[in-house]
Amino acid sequence: MTIQWFPGHMTRAKRQIQEKLKLIDIAIELLDARVPLSSRNPMVEEILSGKPRLIVLNKSDLADPRTTEQWMAYFANEGHECVSVDSSTGTRVGDIPVKAKQILHEKIARQIAKGMNPRAVRGLIVGIPNVGKSTLINRLAGRNIALTGDRPGVTKGQQWIKVGGDMELLDTPGILWPKFEDELVGYRLAMTGAIREQILNVDDIAFFAVRELVDRYWPTLQERYELETPPTDSADSDEIVRVMEDIGRRRGCLISGGRVDLEKTSGIILRDLRAGKLGRITLEAPPY
Fold first, then answer.
1. Fewer CB within 10 Å: C terminus or N terminus of the chain?
2. pTM (2 decimals)?
3. Which parts are annotated binding residues for GTP?
4. Which GO terms describe its cellular component (predicted)?
């Protein structure tokens, strides 16, 4: 499977970012802590042209904390400063301006040595759709200044936003890349809500999600839906469908003849996953 698109607004967003780079001191790359690699746009390296960077793992409240620590070590090994935050509650969001100034300390020191009064750090937030940019900006700004929503692509333009007296942020629309060569990336982004469900069938997304959860978090899945019999082979499609049907029966998703409505069941599974009702789950580990 190869998912391909490059909507016009994403082309414009890429161009807007490149035009503003000369005004930026540091780029803040926002990733989903549940899928850090899949939510990392490979075009960012080209777009940012070597600008200093701070990686922020957002939605850490929904991610497995042990795996988040592994990801932070992974990015540190790449030479990037990294912080994990929960923009919905504001947990550790205040670390972002502090880390940004630490990354730019040499530049700030040179300005002071020249007798200059350092201005506020100018940062650019970049990330794929629905990774939580607007929620994070509102937390940093202390007010609802950026549009938010639970669907991909809510941010429509770009705007400068003051964060106290030490930072100014440039919000930008989310940018997806032209195509996914790896179907796992597409499915993982669909599971977390970064891709509109019209692109992939909801049953297929839920099937992939259940297979991943069976492999990684069976006890959590079992407890949430009061399941009794684990699958004998998670690679067996019939076994995964059986688990989905068990979930559907537990949730009353039945249609005529006592059959399970898999579409309704799939919707329940995905909503529970995205809302954190299945616990703190990370869907990929660092590629050591």
1. C
2. 0.85
3. 58-61, 130-135, 174
4. cytoplasm
